[in-house]
TrEMBL record:
InterPro entries: cEGF (IPR026823), EGF (IPR000742), EGF-like_Ca-bd_dom (IPR001881), EGF-type_Asp/Asn_hydroxyl_site (IPR000152), EGF_Ca-bd_CS (IPR018097), Growth_fac_rcpt_cys_sf (IPR009030), NELL2-like_EGF (IPR024731), NOTCH1_EGF-like (IPR049883). SMART domains: EGF (SM00181), EGF_CA (SM00179). It is found in: Cell surface; Secreted. GO terms for molecular function: calcium ion binding. The gene is SCUBE1. Residues 11-51, 94-130, 259-299, 300-338 form the EGF-like domain. This is Signal peptide, CUB and EGF-like domain-containing protein 2. It comes from Electrophorus electricus (Electric eel).
Amino acid sequence: QTRVMLRWSVYTDECSEDTDDCHIDALCQNTPKSFKCICKAGYKGDGKQCEDMDECDNDYNGGCVHDCINIPGNYRCTCYDGFMLADDGHNCLDVDECQDNNGGCQQICVNTMGSYECQCKEGFFLSDNQHTCIHRSEDGMNCMNKDHGCAHICRETPKGGVSCECRPGFELAENQQDCRLTCNYGNGGCQHTCEDTDVGPLCGCHQKYALHSDLKTCIETCAVNNGGCDRTCKDTATGVRCSCPVGFTLQPDGKTCKDIDECLENNGGCDHLCRNTVGSFECSCQKGHKLLTNERTCQDIDECSFERTCDHICINYPGSFECVCHRGYTLYGLTHCGGVFTHTHTHTHTRTHTQSVTVCLLT
């Protein structure tokens, strides 16, 4: 008596049946025997317990050049007033306020990094609202006089003199007339970071950038992450310039290189077949042709020029050939010719008979 033991297993999909104990911010992934929990992007932990990862809490400030705001499972970059977020979601670019209604200035609007300022034409000075212009007076030492000397705001004193004040974000210089910029106004004219010093704002840049010769603007540099370029990176006075090798084209983002499919235009110059490759292309020929040294042109192969291509007669055609046999011969296969004859064999036993055998002779 033979006993047969049968074993079977029942597959359980814990992830679909919600019988897993993964954290709410984790993903359940089935395995051959069980399941495992993996924390979602932006979270850290063993999958059973997941906590938000603060992407802003590192030396790179999450890659943000101004403010980094951590949110559950993610983060976002924001910019100071006077700046706008670049397309990469990290860098901050100056907003040209003068392009919109002349910045609200009555006469002249001058854009600056992170801000702007209104100026007046000759014979006028800027009023306290810093936008409108007032005609100067030639009489007396008062705020209407063109020689009052205040860089920003002029106040008349009870004693008949003038007192100078500065706009918010500026501080009055030692001469009590000029106004010195601070980091509190337009980020001190700095594109990225600003530090107040005794001589004025000191600009700095995020780790991915280098300070421009104007000591305010931050530009990408090839020394860090190849300047973000896919292939070739070159440092210029205005930042990095990316370029691509032959067979690739630079994309609108100015950094990515995309393969050119040369076969799409005029078949790549190939006579017959064109096959695109990464950064290049290849020409090939149809059967019965060969590629010439220019790697574009296809030439017919004259098979009849080879020795013993056909047994008898060889006729060449473009891309092919044909074998023909002499009269009285039959073509066998593609190239061979054979003759046909009849052999009569007679032998005698109790009776005589004749047998004919057809034999093919190849020549």
